[in-house]
Write the structure tokens for this entry.
Amino acid sequence: MSSNNIVLSAHNVGKCFYMYDRPADRLKDLIAPKLSFIPSLNKRKFHTEFWALKDVSFEVGKGECVGIIGQNGSGKSTLLQIIAGTMTPTTGHVDVQGKVTALLELGSGFNPDFTGRENVYLNGCLLGLTRTEIDEKFDWIASFADIGPHLEQAVKTYSSGMMLRLAFAVQAAIDSQLLIVDEALAVGDARFQLKCFKRLEELKNSGTTILFVSHATELVRSLCSRGLLLNGGDVIYWGDAKVATTKYFDILFPEEKGTETIHEVETNTQTFSNDSNDPSAYCLTLGLSDLQGERFGIGGADLISVNILGLDKPNILVGQRQLNVKCQFSWDIEFVKDLIKKENYEKNITLGISLCDNMGRYLFGCNGFDNYVHIDVENKGKSTVEFKVKIPYLTPGTYFCTIAIAVGNQKHHAQLKWYDCAIQLQVQESSNNVYGVFAIDYEMKKVA
């Protein structure tokens, strides 16, 4: 990446916080260096160190959207505060080219007794705008927030959603080189969220660099080109956003020991044959070793084979098809029984299947909990589940199928094994007069 296009660079950034067992230790820690001539206080520390960030380094270019993900306490917010300039790093440094706008705590700079209009001017001034600049942007801010006459009312009368609308509108109106969004869109109605994401796309396309923090991995996959995964203050992964989200799942569902005791899994290689029910269609048979993508989960289960009936050609779809997907899988009965006892899960095991595009955005997903496909965990430790999926006309491109094995019920379950984007399907062009994701059947005619 050219140095001229780098907007943000972090070099060995670390942040250490001092933790005290008692309030008095804070005072002792403050005066102890001044009393170092006393032997008992010489070099004594009354605190323990907690490193929220450790040796974090990365670079972000102009117009990039980077997703920052990780569990609570992984260091995401600390890193963003350092980048925004509201916190000083203990080690290393951050270089930012241009103006930074941060959506960290929306509405935190509002005066509750001021009206919405007055707070727009107040917040705009705090963000570095002149009154003339705010005057020029005010109509756009009011239109984007869309809170009507409430704009002239005191902010203390606002709901949290109205506060979000106005605060985001002010921040989104600022012309900045770097925009930081930290879970700021977690509230608000669906239509306003859509408006916000469209605005983020506009900013990205205009060259604004965006740092986007969210636990919603599907948003990270769809919005971001690269991802930064943090865990315990360390950088676990820096690169492709899709890979970052799958590695994040790997942290959430670490593989446990004991999974080697499941039934021996066949590793038959990929084969093709004609579908006996439809000579024009193919049947794709995959063994465990043929499945691609990342795999994660707490363990205790594995796929044996996957059969896909109804393909037009090997791994290829042309037009609309009824796919018949059969998945054979096995599980360690004792492992799963112990898990159920420990976590109080229901004694059901089932499968889930989903389809996503080449950006990792989920187009469709379902599972056996919804369809009452509940298999008793003691059912010989092996079973086959069949999915019948009517695939619509998809526009040409690459798509991926994800398969998961879970135990419990819809609201309370554990992922035993998740095969992320395990099967790749290629959709070839069947018509060239449509665009988007789904080539839906339509009719257009002149009536007058």
Observations:
- The chain has nine helices and 21 strands.
